[in-house]
C-alpha cells in the first residue's frame, strides 16, 4: 500500500495569472500553467540563447526602503530558503535590470504584485511602477542550486513535474525565524529518490555547499505536508512506491514572507522566473566538499519514515565510542549481542526528540533496602543532564516503591550541579487495555504524544513468562512495576521511539537481541527480556551507555551538518546556551557525587541507598 502522502492521481497545479477587464486594469490573481523560462537582465536573452558567463540566476523581492533592514535580517536569519546574494538600494539599480522581453511562446508572467499581503496581479514588466520603484529596494536571492544536476550525477532521471510548470513547492508547518513584521512558514521543494541512491544523491547535492543540503528526508507529514500531489506552487513530481521523499528549502518562502508583512506594495519574481545577476555567492565553489561536510544518511524511524544526517567525521567518532563502551569487563559474552550503529541511530533519534522519558532501576539486591544497584541511576542522570542542556523536557519514571529514593537522588543532583533543574518523577502501575497509551498521549490520542522517545538504562525487563529475573534467575517481579507496557505501547504509536541500554540481556529493551541472549548469555533462556526497543545499546556496564548517549548528543549537536538538518536551515546557526554544553557532559567528579549514597552488599556489589 502506498503511504497516504503519495495521494491519488495528481492534478497539475498552476501559477498565478492576472486577468484584466475591458479597460486593461488588473482584476485578480488566478492560476494558469506557464513555462519555466527565466527572466534575464537587459539585454534580454533567454538562457538557451546566450551564455551568461559569470552571472547567477536569482529571484527578486522588491520592498519599500523602510522594510529593507528588517527583510535583510530576516534573510540572514533564514539563509536556507532565503540565500541573499545582495541588495540594491533606491537609485543604485535601474528598471531595465528587472525587465525582460516577454516570452512569445508562453506569455508567462515575470513578477507578482502584492498589496497589503495579497497577490493582486502578475506582470511582465514593472515599467508602469517607475515612480514607486524610486523608493524601493531590490533583494536578489540565489537560485543557483537545483537538485537536477545531482540527480543526473548519480544516474537518476531529473524530477520533471507532472504538468509543464515549475516543479512543485509546499508550505510547511515549520516556522521561519520571525523578524520585525516578517513571519511565515518555510516553503520546500521535493524530489523522490530510490532508497539505494539516497546517500549518493545527498552527497552530490551537498558538494555545492550548504544550499544543497536537504532539510528533511522521509514522511512529508513530519513537515505538515498532507499530500505531495497537491503543491502550493507549481506542479507535482510523481512518486513511485519505494521512493523516499527528499526536501530542500525553496525560495518560494520569499513569497510567503512578503505576504506576511502586509506592506501596501511589493513585487516578487513569479514562480519559475529568475533574473541574472553578477552578484557573487560567498559559499565555497561547487565540488569543494570538506571532510567535515561529507554527510552520512541514517534511517531513525520506519513509521513515520524518517532519516537523519551527520557528517562522516562525527559518525566515525560515535562508532569509536560504541566500541569503547562494548568492552566486556565481566566476560559475560555481550559481544554476541552487539548490533552496529545502534548507539548512532538511538542518539540521532534522541537529537530529534522534543520530550524524553527516562527509566531506570534494577532491584537485584532484593534482601536489602533499598534493593537497587548503582548501575543505571548515574547513567540516567547523566543523560537527563545533557537533555536539559539541549533544552529538551525530560522526565523520569520509576517503581512506585522507589519514588522517595529517586526524588532524593534528583535533589542531590541539582544541589551538586549535575542537573540544572528538578525533573519530574513519575510512576505507572498498569491498568486496563489502553492504560499505557493514555499515559503516553494527551487524552489518549496517539497523534498527541507527551513524549516522543523513551529510554531505559539498566531497567529490569520482562521475560517471556511474564516474570522479571536477575542474572541468577531469581524472580524479582514483586519489586517491579509494569513500565514495560509503555515500551510495548510505543510499537503501536507512530512517532514515539524507544532505546534500551543493557549489559546482560535481562534489561528492558533487550528483546531486540533476545535470541542472541538465549544462545550466548548464562541463564539466557530464562532471564532474556522479551520486550524490545527500537534501539538496543549494548555495553559492558549500563551506566556507560547513559554517559555515551550524552556524549554522542554533544558530538551531533556540535556537527554543522546535523545542526542545519535539525533546524531545517532556518533560524540562527548558533544555539542559546551552547557554550554551557561541555559543562553538562558527564565526568568522573560528577558521577562520584551520585555514588556517595552507595552501600556495599555482602556479595561485594554496590547498591544505592537513600540520601
UniProtKB/TrEMBL annotation:
Any one Gene Ontology BP term: glutamate metabolic process
Record carries keyword 4Fe-4S: no
Lyase is among the record's keywords: yes
Compositional bias of kind Basic and acidic residues: 18-33
Domain of life: Eukaryota
Keywords (A to Z) from UniProt: Lyase
Gene3D superfamilies reported for this sequence: PSTPO5379-like, PSTPO5379-like domain, TON_0340
GO molecular function, one term: D-glutamate cyclase activity
Record Pfam families: D-Glu_cyclase, GLUCM-like_C
Location of region: Disordered: 1-43
Domain D-glutamate cyclase-like C-terminal, first and last residues per copy: 321-592
Family: Belongs to the D-glutamate cyclase family.
PANTHER family in the cross-refs: D-GLUTAMATE CYCLASE, MITOCHONDRIAL
Protein name: D-glutamate cyclase, mitochondrial isoform X3
Upper classification of the organism: Eukaryota, Metazoa, Chordata, Craniata, Vertebrata
The gene coding this protein: DGLUCY
Amino acid at each position: 500500500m502506498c503511504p497516504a502522502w503519495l495521494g491519488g492521481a495528481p492534478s497539475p497545479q498552476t501559477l498565478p495569472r492576472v486577468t484584466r477587464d475591458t479597460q486593461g486594469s488588473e482584476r485578480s490573481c488566478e492560476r494558469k500553467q506557464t513555462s519555466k523560462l527565466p527572466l534575464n537582465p537587459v539585454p534580454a536573452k533567454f538562457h538557451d540563447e546566450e551564455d551568461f558567463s559569470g552571472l547567477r540566476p536569482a529571484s527578486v523581492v522588491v520592498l519599500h526602503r523602510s522594510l529593507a533592514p528588517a527583510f535583510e535580517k530576516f534573510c540572514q536569519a533564514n539563509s536556507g530558503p532565503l540565500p541573499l546574494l545582495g541588495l540594491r538600494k533606491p537609485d543604485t539599480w535601474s528598471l531595465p535590470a528587472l525587465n525582460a522581453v516577454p516570452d512569445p511562446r508562453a506569455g508567462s508572467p515575470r513578477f507578482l504584485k502584492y498589496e497589503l499581503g495579497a497577490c493582486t496581479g502578475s506582470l511582465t514588466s514593472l515599467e508602469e511602477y517607475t515612480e514607486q520603484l524610486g523608493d524601493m529596494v531590490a533583494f536578489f536571492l540565489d537560485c543557483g542550486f537545483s537538485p537536477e544536476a545531482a540527480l543526473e550525477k548519480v544516474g537518476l532521471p531529473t524530477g520533471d513535474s507532472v504538468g509543464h510548470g515549475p516543479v512543485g513547492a509546499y508550505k510547511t508547518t515549520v516556522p521561519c525565524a520571525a523578524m520585525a513584521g516578517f513571519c511565515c512558514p518555510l516553503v520546500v521543494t521535493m524530489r523522490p529518490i530510490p532508497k539505494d541512491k539516497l546517500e549518493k544523491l545527498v552527497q552530490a547535492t551537498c558538494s555545492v555547499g550548504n544550499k544543497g543540503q536537504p532539510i528533511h528526508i522521509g514522511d512529508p507529514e513530519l513537515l505538515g505536508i498532507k499530500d505531495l500531489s497537491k503543491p502550493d506552487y507549481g506542479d507535482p513530481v510523481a512518486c513511485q512506491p519505494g521512493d523516499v521523499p527528499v526536501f530542500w528549502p525553496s525560495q518560494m518562502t520569499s513569497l510567503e514572507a512578503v505576504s506576511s508583512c502586509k506592506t501596501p506594495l511589493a513585487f516578487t519574481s513569479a514562480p519559475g522566473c529568475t533574473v541574472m545577476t553578477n552578484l557573487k555567492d560567498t559559499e565555497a565553489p561547487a565540488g569543494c566538499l570538506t571532510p567535515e561536510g561529507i554527510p552520512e544518511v541514517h534511517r531513525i524511524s520506519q513509521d513515520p519514515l524518517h532519516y537523519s544526517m551527520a557528517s562522516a567525521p562525527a559518525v566515525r567518532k560515535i562508532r569509536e565510542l560504541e566500541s569503547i563502551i562494548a568492552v566486556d569487563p565481566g566476560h559475560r559474552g555481550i559481544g554476541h549481542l552487539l548490533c552496529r550503529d545502534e548507539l548512532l541511530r538511538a542518539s540521532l533519534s534522541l537529537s530529534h526528540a522534543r520530550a524524553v522519558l527516562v527509566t531506570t532501576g534494577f532491584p537485584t539486591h532484593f534482601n536489602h533496602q533499598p534493593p537497587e544497584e548503582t548501575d543505571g541511576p548515574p547513567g540516567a542522570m547523566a543523560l537527563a543532564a545533557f537533555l536539559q542542556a539541549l533544552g529538551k523536557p525530560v522526565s523520569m519514571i520509576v517503581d512506585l516503591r522507589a519514588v522517595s529514593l529517586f526524588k532524593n537522588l534528583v535533589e542531590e543532583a541539582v544541589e551538586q550541579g549535575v542537573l540544572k533543574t528538578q525533573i519530574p518523577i513519575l510512576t505507572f502501575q498498569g491498568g486496563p487495555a489502553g492504560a499505557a497509551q493514555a499515559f503516553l498521549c494527551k487524552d489518549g490520542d496517539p497523534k498527541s504524544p507527551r513524549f516522543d522517545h523513551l529510554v531505559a538504562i539498566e531497567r529490569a525487563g520482562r521475560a517471556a513468562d511474564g516474570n522479571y529475573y536477575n542474572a541468577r534467575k531469581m524472580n524479582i517481579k514483586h519489586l517491579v512495576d509494569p513500565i514495560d507496557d509503555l515500551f510495548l505501547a510505543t510499537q503501536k504509536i507512530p512517532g514515539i521511539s524507544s532505546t534500551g541500554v543493557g549489559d546482560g540481556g535481562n534489561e528492558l529493551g533487550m528483546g531486540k537481541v533476545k535470541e542472541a541472549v538465549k544462545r550466548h548469555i548464562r541463564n539466557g533462556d530464562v532471564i532474556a527480556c522479551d520486550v524490545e526497543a527500537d534501539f538496543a545499546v549494548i555495553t559492558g556496564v549500563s551506566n556507560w551507555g547513559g554517559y555515551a548517549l550524552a556524549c554522542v548528543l554533544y558530538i551531533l549537536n556540535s556537527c554543522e551538518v546535523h545542526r542545519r538538518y535539525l533546524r531545517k536551515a532556518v533560524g540562527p546557526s548558533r544555539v542559546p546556551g551552547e557554550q554551557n554544553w561541555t559543562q553538562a557532559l558527564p565526568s568522573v567528579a560528577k558521577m562520584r557525587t551520585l555514588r556517595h549514597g552507595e552501600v556495599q552488599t555482602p556479595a561485594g556489589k554496590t547498591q544505592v541507598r537513600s540520601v
